[in-house]
Every structure is written in structure tokens, then in C-alpha cells.
Hints:
This is Chalcone isomerase domain-containing protein. The protein is an alpha+beta fold. The protein contains five helices and six strands, in the order αβββααβββαα. It has one domain (2-165): Chalcone isomerase, CATH 3.50.70. It has a six-stranded antiparallel sheet with strand order 1-2-3-4-5-6. The longest helix has 15 residues, at 2-16.
Amino acid sequence: MKMLVFLGLLCYSLVALPCETPAGLKAVGAAELRVWGFKIYRASTYSCAGESIVDFRQLPASFTLEILYYRDIDGSDLIEKTRTEWQRLGLYDTRAEQWLTELADIWPNVKANDTLTMWVDSQERAQFLLNKRPIGIVSAEEFAETFAAIWLHPDASYPKLRAQLSGIQP
């Protein structure tokens, strides 16, 4: 009997394991951002089951947003662009300013070919990685959804990018 319980727990843990790290996730979508013909970055989204993202306020389990930058960008410019997008989308409030302060402490200047990743873990914390190495966590409620809204909100700045990242359009 103990052996059956052990085997059952082992099987359960093996099934749950793929979603416990970004490495076990399935692709949802990917898209490249170009501005005036210049390649800025390639963004990719992942989730546990690879399902489409219908509503940015309801991210799938273990959601990941990964951005491969094609050019050098200062961390302060990333912060300012995040602020601008949240304001434009009507998502900027007192919490947002606190989150931006936290991000300023986490985000470095990125260089061409750097990958900045936000992985939402099972505790709904947004863990940031630079080139697959952890650099910080924002654990505030609703942060991950608000951050992902920059790409997944119905009024996102780049509708084609949104459609591809949400898995709605190939």
C-alpha cells in the first residue's frame, strides 16, 4: 500500500513538474516588433498548456513573457516606456508608481541579444530573469496582469503583435 501511495505521489509530481519552471512551458505565440523598419525585439509568450490568452486579466498558469532585444536599451528607458503604456491604457495608479520603483531596482540596461523574461510562478509572483538568470521578483497582486497588458490589452499599441502573442493569430 505504501508503495502505491509513493508511486501515485511520484506520478503526480512528474505531471506537475513541467509547469514549475519556465523551461517546461509550451509556446502560446511570438512576434517581432519593428518600428520604422528597425527591429526592436522579439517577444514570445508561454503557458503550462500553451492555450490562447483571451483576457489579459486572466493569465494562464505559469505565464511567461520573454523578450529578446535586438538593440541596446537603457533600463530607465524601459521604465519610462512601461509608465507611458500603462498611462495610455488607463492602468496607471498609485500602485503602478510603486511597481515602477521596484522595477527600477531590478531591471538592468539591456544589450543587443539579451533576453528579459517575466515568469509568473505558481504563487503568482512575477519573477524576472536576464538571460535565464534571476534578477528580481515583484510579488504585488495584479502586477503580472498589468505588466502583460502592455502587450495583451485589447488596446495595446501594436494590435498585430498582440494577436500573435495571445495565440489568436499565427
